[in-house]
Each structure stands twice: as structure tokens, then as C-alpha cells.
Design a protein that fits this description.
- By secondary structure, this protein is α/β, with parallel strands linked by helices.
- The chain folds into two domains: 435 residues, ANL, N-terminal domain (Rossmann fold, 3-Layer(aba) Sandwich), CATH 3.40.50.12780; 124 residues, GMP Synthetase, Chain A, domain 3, CATH 3.30.300.30.
- Strand 18, helix 12 and strand 19 form a beta-alpha-beta unit.
- The strands form nine sheets. It has a seven-stranded mixed sheet with strand order 5-4-17-16-18-19-20, sandwiched between helices.
- The termini are far apart.
- Bound molecules: 5'-O-[(S)-ethoxy(hydroxy)phosphoryl]adenosine.
- The site of 5'-O-[(S)-ethoxy(hydroxy)phosphoryl]adenosine (WTA) has 22 residues, from helix 10, strand 20, strand 24 and strand 25.
């Protein structure tokens, strides 16, 4: 049950959480099932950093889903699964069904020698078995690392190698709209470079003809066949790793953000219930993929820890028609609906006709996440989907934060289009200028930092703690730095303005510009490249690549096509540049750094005020680029 039910109640809770954070979180933690109580609520410093919540507490997160609810909710739907193709039957797994499936698969994992602390990579479609896989890992103390199934074999291999996974869970193929994607081939290719992997378990989903490597590959239905539906939950320490999730930053390869057990459990449930004002019996639907943090915290862990009914959708918003989301809302009588601004903008382009056949009268709360929502999309969502009666929760958070940090409480916090509004209890955001001075009061803008730990924050980056310190705790010593720039307006409301670093947000997916550049540079004719984001009507930001290349061997058109394919092969379709411009040079400072500020301006189609270019090593190149770009 949500704790916060009035606006004054929110302020009251917030105040308590700031004055006595330990006491505040302890009271919430006490509502969970622990095998052994903690000795200390919180130990922390942001210098190393070292953050420990519920120190020495022992628990298993799945006991807080299953053992806790079996007697009261055994027959209640835990997961409603809607397939890609509406002609296929949907599935409902009750809490008891899910418990039994998780136990069977836990035993299966044990039978292939997975033990506590082993890493298991999950590269699967959005089917209930993916949830079963995650929860089975948690049940036996294995650490899951879900990789979005749209990533390429190179990206998958990088992640498997980084965490030295022992097992990979996958499928014979994935359905995505009208397409069938041969994911097992992707896994096979990745595994050629991954000696740590001893076995794979393959779920039959599409009946695609695939190669099964003897001694390594097993069918899901075979490994569970004779397994018992009972499996004792491993005893975990609060600070034992629950999962690793890779995310992009401004430099280097994606890093493995590490979340631990106790704090993550407490925070995801608390934030889920309060933000969405979930009431028992409601049907909640988050359209994210389990390959992202939103899928972890707000399809699986948060809702299931709250005993909710969570809907999982395998498909895409426009298949077989652009009213599919709304058809599903009516079909399953969805009460809370949580999606990304990109999806809203994409559906907006189809007009309101696709919505007309549906009632949408079950909806109570709408949510958005992943990127700033522009006012137009906010109003469209509010008017045409929420019919002017559903509050919108614009939830700001990150892979690293584990849960929602700044958001309205549905129906309680007055909303303002494109504002994430106020911090949840326990969250102490501050705005710092570039020198690290805290900007007090309202009507200020700057770097968004958090000055006090919260239970679901990242603990480290896998295998490289120094990288965690460098990335998040060194820009502003003593603070967690989000990488976002924010404005606190005259009412004290927060509005996230975007990233301050070289991370771009394309359709709600985080991408490092360096990562895309590295992929482009793999093309043998590319000499150098620079990637920037530019405003894109649907995706929020598009990817613009400026490329210097040897043009003697291809037409410009075919080279551009090949570069796009190279990026697709190395990272995956989500990283394919929207625009590629072949240029004679890139603007550089005397120390050889690319002046991205200039490229960003040109990419946005506005070359009117490029600022001072006289310090450039090669100012003349700016005119050439402008000409090539036609601005
Ligand atoms: C951006 C997704 C504006 C932000 C949960 C953040 C947002 C990055 C919002 C994290 C929002 C997320 N309004 N921007 N409501 N939510 N962002 O790790 O730049 O995939 O730093 O986590 O998305 O993306 P990530």
C-alpha cells in the first residue's frame, strides 16, 4: 500500500526522511522479510565511494515476492503476458505459477553448476521466462546481467567478457512486429570470443531452425523437465550483488553498473507503490524492455515486491496497427501505464484515429521515463490517452540510481508539463555550478547532484571500482554527479534539461558518442569521425556523424550505407546514425581536441552563431563543413 496519500503527507514523509534518514528507511525495511536483521542501517562515504545499507542483514529478495505472498495472493495474477502477435493467446501466471516456474528454473541452473556469485547473462525476448530467469538467478544467488536482445554480437560479447559469465540464457529467435530475429546466431557468434561461457539454455519461441552446439547448448524445456517446483532460497547479504546492468557513458566501453540486494529491494518497492499509487487488484503496465533498468525495477522487482499484477508485452507499439497499445489497455483493463516520450511522439504521428476504437476508461495513472518529455507530447498524452483525468508522472532517474528519484506522486503532486517536479522521500538533490558551489533557492540551473545516499544507488562498476569513483564521485567531491543539467524553477520544481557530457539520448536509449565513433572508425575507409546529438522530432535526439574518409573507392552514397551497416554490426540497430556527412576535416583545438560545440550547432541546422572559432587549429574547415551540411 502506498504510504503517501496526500500532498501534506508527502512533505511530512520527505521531512522525516531528511532529518532522520536512517530511521526513515529502517521503518520501511522492517516491513520486509529478513532472515537476519541488520546491525546498522547505513555506512557510507562518497570519497571511495563506499555505500552499505542494512549492514549485515540477510535475506533473499525472492522470498519477499513469493513466500511473502503465496498464502494471500497465490491465485492472483503476478504476470499477464501479451504476445507480439495478438492472434496468439495471452498468458497469465499467478504468484503460485511464477513461484513454481522460478523454483524449477532455479533447480535447473543448479543442475548446470551455477552457484552463488556466478554471472548469468540473459539475452532473451520479452516473455515470462525472461522474468523467471532473472528471479531464478536471484533465488540461488547468481548475479544476472540482462543484455537488450537488440544488441549486436560484439556488444553482447563485450558484456559477457567483462563480467566473465558462466551461462547465457537465450531463445531460438525473437518476434518483433512483423519480423523474426535470429538471436541464437548472434549468441553463437558472440560466444566464439567468450571462453568463460560453459553452457547456454535456449528457450523455444519462434521454432526457427538453429544450431545446437553439443555439450554447450541445452533446450530450456529439457533442463526444467524433471526439476522440482521447490527450491530453497539462498541466504544473501544485503550488500551481495543482485545484478549487473551495462550502460553507456561518455568514455570507453559500457560499464557494468552494480546493484545489491537489500537496498534495491526496499527502494524499488517503496518508489513503485508511491509514485504510481498502486492499489491492490490494479493492473500495471510498463512498456520498457527488461534489457533496461526500467524493465528491472518497474516491470519485475518493484511491482512483484509490491504483490502487484504486472503486464509484460513482447511486441512493438505499431504492430499490427498503431492502436496496439490502446487495444492492450482495454483488453487487460490496465490501470497504470508507463512508457517513454519517444513512443508517445511516434504514436502522435499517426493521429488520433488509432485511439478512437478504444475506451481507455480503466486508466488511472500515466507515466513517462527515459528522456525529457516535450510539452506537446505531454499534452497529447494527457488529453488523448488520459482523457484529461489521469495524472502524468514524469519520472526522472538513471540506471545508476536503481529507482525513480524525482517524480510527482500520482494524483497528489500538482503536475506541470515537462517537469519531473519534486524529489521522492529520501532523495536530496542539489544543483551545483561548474565550480562546485551549491546553488540555493529557486530559479537556478546547473549540474544535478545528490548529496546523500539512497538505498538503491549503484555500489560500483563491475570489476573497476576506480571507474565508478572517477565517473560519478570525482567531478564534485562529496556528491554523486548525475551527468544531467537541471533547472529548479520559481516553485522549486525540477525540470531536467539534458546531459552535460558526451552522452546522447536517442529514443530514451543512452549512447556514448565515443562508442558510436569507435564503431564508425572500424570501417576501413574511415579516417576519423565525430558524433553529436541533434534535436529529432520523434527520437528526442538523433545521431549525427561527421566523417573524414578515403573517398577514392566508393560513391558517397554507398560509403554512407556501409558505415551505417558497420555501426549496426558493431553495436546494434539503435546506434545507427540518422545522418552521416562526409567532411574534409573536423574543427580542432590547438591541443587536438574536436570542438563538438561547433558540430552540435551545425548538426542542429543553425550555424548562425558559432562563437569564437579563432582559437581553432583549422578555422577554415568550419566553412567547408557548413557548406557540406548546407547550413
Ligand atoms: C535521462 C533511464 C528527463 C537523463 C531510467 C538520465 C530523463 C538518463 C528522464 C538515464 C526524465 C531519464 N526526464 N530526462 N523523466 N528520465 N532521463 O540510465 O538524462 O537509461 O541521466 O535510465 O535519461 O538513462 P538510463
Amino acid at each position: 500500500m502506498p504510504k503517501i496519500t496526500t500532498f501534506s503527507g508527502y512533505f511530512h514523509e520527505y521531512q522525516k526522511s531528511i532529518v532522520q534518514p536512517q530511521k526513515f528507511w529502517e521503518r520501511i525495511a522492517e516491513t520486509f522479510h529478513w532472515k537476519k536483521r541488520w546491525t546498522n542501517v547505513l555506512d557510507w562515504n562518497f570519497e571511495e565511494p563506499s555505500v552499505k545499507w542494512f549492514v549485515d542483514g540477510k535475506l533473499n529478495i525472492t522470498e519477499n515476492i513469493f513466500e511473502r505472498f503465496l498464502y494471500t495472493k497465490g491465485d492472483q495474477p503476478a504476470i499477464i503476458w501479451e504476445p507480439n502477435n495478438p492472434k496468439e493467446a495471452y498468458r497469465v501466471l499467478t504468484y503460485r505459477d511464477l513461484y513454481e516456474e522460478v523454483n524449477r528454473f532455479s533447480n535447473a541452473l543448479k543442475s548446470i553448476a551455477v552457484v552463488k556469485g556466478d554471472r548469468v547473462v540473459i539475452y532473451m525476448p520479452m516473455v515470462p521466462e525472461a522474468a523467471v530467469a532473472m528471479l531464478a538467478c536471484a533465488r540461488i544467488g547468481a548475479i544476472h546481467s540482462v543484455v537488450f536482445a537488440g544488441f549486436s554480437s560484439t556488444s553482447l560479447a563485450d558484456r559477457i567478457k567483462d563480467c566473465k559469465a558462466k551461462v547465457v540464457l537465450t531463445s531460438d529467435g525473437n518476434f518483433r512486429g512483423a519480423k523474426t530475429i535470429p538471436v541464437k546466431d548472434v549468441v553463437d557468434e558472440a560466444l566464439e570470443k567468450c571462453p568463460s561461457v560453459k553452457s547456454t539454455v535456449v528457450l523455444k519461441r519462434t521454432n526457427t531452425e538453429i544450431n545446437m552446439r553439443v555439450g554447450r547448448d541445452m533446450w530450456w524445456h529439457d533442463v526444467i523437465e524433471n526439476e522440482s517446483t521447490e527450491c530453497n532460497a539462498e541466504t544473501m547479504d544485503s550488500e551481495d550483488m543482485l545484478f549487473i546492468l551495462y550502460t553507456s557513458g561518455s568514455t570507453g566501453k559500457p560499464k557494468g553498473v552494480v546493484h545489491t540486494t537489500g537496498g534495491y529491494m526496499v527502494y524499488t518497492k517503496y518508489s513503485f507503490e508511491n509514485v504510481f499509487q498502486y492499489q491492490q487488484g490494479d493492473v500495471y503496465w510498463c512498456t520498457a524492455d527488461i534489457g533496461w533498468i526500467t524493465g528491472h525495477s518497474y516491470i519485475i522487482y518493484g511491482p512483484l515486491l509490491a504483490g502487484a499484477t504486472t503486464l509484460m508485452f513482447e511486441g512493438v507499439p505499431t504492430f499490427p496497427h498503431p492502436g496496439r497499445f490502446w487495444e492492450i489497455v482495454d483488453k487487460h483493463q490496465v490501470n497504470q501505464f508507463y512508457t517513454a516520450p519517444t513512443a508517445i511522439r511516434a504514436l502522435q504521428t499517426h493521429g488520433i484515429e488509432p485511439i478512437a476504437p478504444f475506451k481507455l476508461d480503466s486508466l488511472k495513472v500515466l507515466g513517462t521515463v527515459g528522456e525529457p518529455i516535450n510539452e506537446e507530447a505531454w499534452h497529447w498524452y494527457h488529453d488523448h490517452i488520459g482523457k484529461n483525468r489521469c495524472p502524468i508522472v514524469d519520472t526522472w532517474w538513471q540506471t545508476e540510481t536503481g529507482g525513480i528519484l524525482v517524480s510527482p506522486i500520482a494524483g497528489i503532486t500538482p503536475t506541470k508539463p515537462s517537469y519531473a517536479t519534486m524529489p521522492l522521500p529520501g532523495i536530496q538533490p542539489v544543483i551545483l555550478d561548474n565550480e562546485g558551489n551549491e546553488l540555493f533557492g529557486n530559479s537556478v540551473e546547473g549540474n544535478l547532484c545528490i548529496k546523500f545516499p539512497w538505498p538503491s544507488m549503484l555500489r560500483t562498476t563491475y570489476g573497476d571500482h576506480e571507474r565508478c569513483r572517477q565517473t560519478y564521485f570525482s567531478s564534485f567531491p562529496g556528491y554523486y554527479f548525475t551527468g544531467d543539467v537541471v533547472r529548479r524553477d520559481e516553485d522549486g520544481y525540477y525540470r531536467i534539461l539534458g546531459r552535460v557530457d558526451d552522452v546522447i539520448n536517442v529514443s530514451g536509449h543512452r549512447m556514448g558518442t565515443a562508442e558510436v565513433e569507435n564503431a564508425i572508425d572500424e570501417h576501413p575507409l574511415v579516417i576519423e569521425s565525430a558524433v553529436v546529438g541533434y534535436p529529432h522530432d520523434i527520437k528526442g535526439q538523433g545521431i549525427f556523424a561527421f566523417v573524414i574518409a578515403d573517398m577514392s573507392q566508393r560513391s558517397e552514397e554507398s560509403l554512407i550505407q556501409e558505415i551505417r551497416e558497420t555501426v549496426n554490426r558493431i553495436i546494434g540497430p539503435i546506434a545507427k546514425p540518422d545522418k552521416i556527412l562526409v567532411v574534409p576535416g573536423l574543427p580542432k583545438t590547438r591541443s587536438g581536441k574536436i570542438m563538438r560545440r561547433i558540430l552540435r550547432k551545425i548538426a542542429s541546422g543553425d550555424a548562425s552563431n558559432l562563437g569564437d572559432t579563432s582559437t581553432l587549429l583549422n578555422p577554415e574547415v568550419v566553412e567547408d563543413i557548413k557548406k557540406a551540411a548546407g547550413v
